[in-house]
Design brief:
Elements lengths: L4 E4 L8 H8 E3 L9 E3 L10 H5 L19 E8 L6 E5 H8 L1 H6 L1 E4 L10 E2 L1 E4 L2 E4 L6 E3 L2 H16 L3 E3 L7 E5 L3 E5 L10 E10 L1
Antiparallel strand pairs: 1-12, 2-14, 3-14, 4-12, 4-14, 5-11, 5-13, 6-7, 6-10, 8-9
Bound molecules: fe (ii) ion (FE2).
The site of fe (ii) ion (FE2) has 3 residues, from loops.
């Protein structure tokens, strides 16, 4: 994972996603009562979800569960039904941190858009960790909560508007993309008409073997 992601095409397409994830690392305990989330495009959904806000359009760059105190380290995306023209886009947080500066990002305080269980937690966009950083970004669900947060918000948005993402298509059953969720930002391309049957399995991993 030196590059922050790994992509393997056609990886045991007949094997269950949980078995593949267990071979790669340690899946996180189930949340929302399932280990594997089945991602399908939705033109309408609850308003507090990406699908509710963006429908079949492009999702903005984000890290997953950025409002958690400690977001899941890895996410594994596995194609069930895919298309070459719906790439997953990735940008490297290392480049982002360098551009916006570690100083600004580690001092930038953000808060979840809405309190969870009545409590509001404050989160840094970037936290130093033993083996690097934990970077979080979600322009929908996190809002700046300090002056440096405002500056960081603006700079990250500017950088994202100009960056050149990597483009990886989960096109065939078994295509498997493992993402370091503390480092890489990802986004979904728009869903063209007639491609609403796209299906991707997602599973979070706390560590790799
Ligand atoms: Fe995501």
């Amino acid at each position: 994972m030196r590059r922050g992601y790994a992509f393997v095409q056609d990886y045991y397409p007949d094997t269950d996603t949980v078995a593949v994830a267990q071979a790669v690392g340690q899946p996180l305990l189930p949340w929302e009562d399932r280990l594997v989330q089945k991602l399908v495009p939705r033109s309408s959904a609850p308003p507090n979800t990406y699908s509710g806000i963006y429908g079949l359009g492009r999702f903005p760059f984000h890290t997953d569960l950025a409002h958690w105190r400690l977001p899941p380290r890895y996410l594994l995306l596995r194609c069930v039904t895919g298309y070459a023209d719906i790439p997953t886009l990735l940008v490297d947080g290392h480049t982002l941190i360098e551009a916006v500066t570690p100083d600004i990002l580690t001092r930038a305080i953000f808060k979840p858009r809405r309190p969870r269980n009545g409590t509001l937690i404050l989160l840094r966009l970037c936290e130093p960790k033993d083996d690097g950083h934990c970077l979080r970004w979600d322009e929908v669900f996190l809002k700046p909560a300090s002056k440096i947060g405002d500056i960081a918000d603006l700079r990250v948005r500017e950088w994202l508007a100009e960056c050149t993402p990597l483009s990886i298509a989960l096109a065939r059953a078994g295509d498997t993309l493992l993402i370091d969720n503390w480092r890489m930002l990802h986004a979904r391309s728009p869903i063209p008409a007639g491609r609403e049957d796209r299906k991707i399995d997602r599973i979070y991993l706390g560590s790799l073997h």
